[in-house]
């Protein structure tokens, strides 16, 4: 009987140790997963930050390019306007000279 009681106590102790081990392992795994999740969240935040910075840089670059294009278009327009004025002036001068020569 004493041996049976001892064997039952050994099994009960073994069962309790097994339960304690599983509880400790679950707690460890939970904490490990929390840390991994925090690490992933930090990586996600960093990626979002870098992405936002990249978008802003791209927007500014596109804006600068647009301004450069507008300036180039304005120069073309101004040059064309200057040439047109010069042509009108030259034609007016030729007309005045022709009118004076016909007198």
Description:
With 103 residues, the protein is mainly α. Helices cover 98% and strands 0% of the residues. It has one helix and no strands. It has one helix at residues 2-102. The model has no long low-confidence stretch (mean pLDDT 95).
Tags for this entry?
103 residues, mainly alpha, 1 helix
The helix fraction, in percent, is: over 70%
Number of strands: 0
Structural class: mainly alpha
User: How would the global form be characterised?
Assistant: rod-shaped
Helix segment tally: 1
**Could you spell the SSE succession in H and E letters?**
H
Q: Distance between the terminal alpha carbons, to the nearest Å?
A: 150 Å
Radius of gyration: 44 Å
Strand content: under 5%
The biggest sheet, with number of strands, parallel, antiparallel or mixed sense and barrel status, is: none
- Poorly predicted runs are none
Short description:
This protein has 103 residues and is mostly helical.
What is the element layout, followed by pairings?
Layout: H1 2-102
């Amino acid at each position: 009987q004493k041996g049976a009681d001892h064997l039952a106590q050994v099994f009960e102790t073994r069962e309790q140790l097994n339960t304690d081990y599983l509880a400790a392992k679950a707690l460890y795994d939970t904490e490990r997963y929390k840390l991994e999740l925090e690490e992933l969240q930090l990586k996600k935040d960093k990626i979002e930050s870098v992405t936002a910075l990249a978008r802003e840089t791209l927007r500014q670059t596109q804006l600068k390019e647009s301004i450069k294009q507008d300036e180039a278009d304005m120069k073309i327009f101004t040059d064309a306007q200057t040439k047109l004025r010069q042509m009108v002036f030259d034609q007016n001068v030729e007309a005045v000279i022709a009118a004076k020569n016909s007198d």
